[in-house]
């Protein structure tokens, strides 16, 4: 008798696991507490702006093999735009300087020898220090390995590591930072090309996955908040969704793809990071000049990254929910930076605040500290039919799209092995 697989959580990790498992021919049921799939990586129609926006800005890279493999499998690849080259424009708001970081495609980083490709004011030898992260010891902070100061740090490593880790790099785990570096700059520009879902994250990652599952007979049930797992010795015997209790058969399996705090509350003794970091995303209904790059890094500003889409601008502020600022004040301050960076102030548009929306996620990611890195669980648990997935699990990466998909793939692989 073939056992069913219950995937609890329809975020990216749960969807990735479900897509893998539905192809085994076994019954797959996805349970989602919300009224929609995608978790923190989704799009929705915002009535204040009158347009579809992403819940938050998420960036994939051309070297993210799991994320791009997932898109290829579900048929979502055509909904993302991959830049032809690894180019990252920056603006320093203190000095007004603008430059474009342009790593060469191959692994030999000759781009650091070209002043036109590297950070202005930096020297070739300055780039060697960051390589210490590749051999960092477990439990060390970035500050134990790299001087978190100076021109190159402020203009390159701080914005890059802050975006990747969603935490002040001075507090971040050096091993995680080293893995980010290993899969990006060390792999060469060929692995660093931005991949952006210009028409929304749901159109690329969520909607095609739901179609893929539906076409293969999987069920996706919304409004299903798992309140309790019933255990019988070394296995899960039941799932309690309020008054609805599902009793599991001897061959049934469960993939728990929920946030770390929820997972720790449901599973006794599960290792899961409890400290989180927030992200603020500010969206504007505005049209940038055609020459504006799709994304621009901001140095010495409140903004971290500015994304220019057709008819809208989205800004990410990493590592904080900016709770001390009111929503409109935050929108006005960010808009003043956006109008300067994009040149809209020259068209007389800097004073008029366009329609805006502020989205704050106070628990967007786990805090990528050394302590959190050691508290990440693998996909297997002490219960033989229970597996966990999520970007907070031990993927070797910080919380990101690639990590979420990898965690779902790891959980599905473990389930399939257990079925055998």
Topology at a glance:
Layout: E1 5-8, H1 12-22, E2 28-31, E3 43-46, E4 51-54, E5 60-61, H2 65-74, E6 81-82, E7 88-92, E8 98-101, H3 151-165, H4 174-183, E9 194-196, H5 201-215, E10 219-221, E11 228-232, E12 235-241, E13 244-247, E14 253-256, H6 260-266, E15 276-284, E16 295-299, E17 305-309, E18 312-318, H7 327-342, E19 356-366, H8 370-374, E20 386-388, H9 401-419
Parallel strand pairs: 1-2, 1-14, 2-10, 7-16, 14-20
Antiparallel strand pairs: 3-4, 5-9, 6-9, 7-8, 11-12, 12-13, 15-18, 15-19, 16-17, 17-18
Helix pairs in contact: 1-5, 1-9, 2-9
What does it look like?
Residues 12-416 form the Amine oxidase domain. It holds the Pfam family Amino_oxidase. This is Amine oxidase domain-containing protein. It is a single chain. The chain is of the alpha/beta class. The chain folds into three domains: 5-45 and 200-274 and 375-419, FAD/NAD(P)-binding domain, CATH 3.50.50.60; 100-192, no CATH class; 276-366, Polyamine Oxidase, Chain A, domain 2, CATH 3.90.660. The longest helix is centred in the C-terminal third of the chain and has 19 residues, at 401-419. It is globular and about 65 Å long. It is built from nine helices and 20 strands. The strands form five sheets. Strands 8-7-16-17-18-15-19 form a seven-stranded mixed beta sheet, with helices on both faces. The chain has a five-stranded parallel beta sheet with strand order 10-2-1-14-20, covered by helices on one side.
């Amino acid at each position: 008798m073939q056992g069913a697989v219950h995937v609890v959580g329809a975020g990216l990790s749960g969807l990735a696991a479900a897509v893998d498992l539905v192809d085994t021919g076994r019954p797959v049921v996805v349970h989602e507490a919300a009224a929609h799939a995608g978790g923190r990586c989704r799009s929705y129609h915002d009535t204040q702006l009158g347009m579809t926006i992403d819940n938050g800005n998420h960036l994939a890279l051309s070297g993210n093999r799991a994320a791009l493999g997932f898109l290829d499998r579900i048929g979502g690849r055509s909904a993302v735009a991959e830049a032809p080259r690894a180019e990252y424009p920056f603006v320093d708001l203190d000095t007004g300087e603008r430059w474009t970081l342009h790593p060469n495609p191959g692994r030999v980083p000759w781009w650091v020898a070209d002043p036109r490709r590297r950070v202005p004011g930096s020297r070739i030898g300055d780039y060697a220090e960051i390589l210490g992260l590749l051999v960092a010891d477990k439990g060390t902070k970035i500050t134990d390995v790299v001087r978190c100061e100076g021109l190159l740090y402020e203009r390159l490593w701080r914005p890059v590591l802050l975006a990747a880790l969603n935490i002040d790099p001075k507090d971040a785990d050096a091993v995680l930072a080293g893995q980010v570096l290993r899969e990006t700059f060390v792999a060469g520009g060929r692995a660093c090309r931005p991949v952006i879902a210009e028409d929304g994250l749901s159109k690329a990652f969520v909607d095609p996955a739901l179609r893929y599952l539906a076409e293969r007979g999987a069920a996706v049930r919304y409004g299903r908040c798992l309140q309790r797992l019933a255990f019988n010795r070394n296995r899960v015997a039941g799932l309690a969704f309020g008054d609805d209790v599902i009793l599991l058969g001897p061959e049934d399996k469960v993939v728990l793809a929920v946030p770390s705090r929820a997972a720790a509350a449901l599973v006794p003794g599960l290792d899961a990071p409890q400290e989180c970091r927030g992200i603020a995303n500010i969206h504007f209904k505005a049209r940038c000049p055609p020459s504006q790059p799709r994304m621009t890094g901001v140095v010495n500003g409140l903004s971290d990254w500015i994304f220019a889409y057709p008819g809208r601008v989205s800004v990410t502020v990493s590592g904080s929910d900016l709770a001390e600022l009111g929503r409109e004040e935050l929108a006005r301050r960010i808009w003043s930076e956006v109008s300067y960076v994009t040149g809209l102030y020259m068209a007389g548009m800097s004073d008029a605040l366009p329609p805006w929306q502020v989205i704050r996620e106070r628990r967007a990611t786990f805090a990528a500290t050394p302590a959190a890195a050691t508290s990440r669980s693998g996909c297997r648990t002490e219960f033989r039919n229970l597996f966990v997935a999520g970007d907070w699990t031990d993927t070797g990466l910080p919380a990101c799209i690639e990590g979420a998909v990898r965690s779902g793939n790891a959980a599905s692989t473990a389930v399939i092995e257990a079925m055998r």
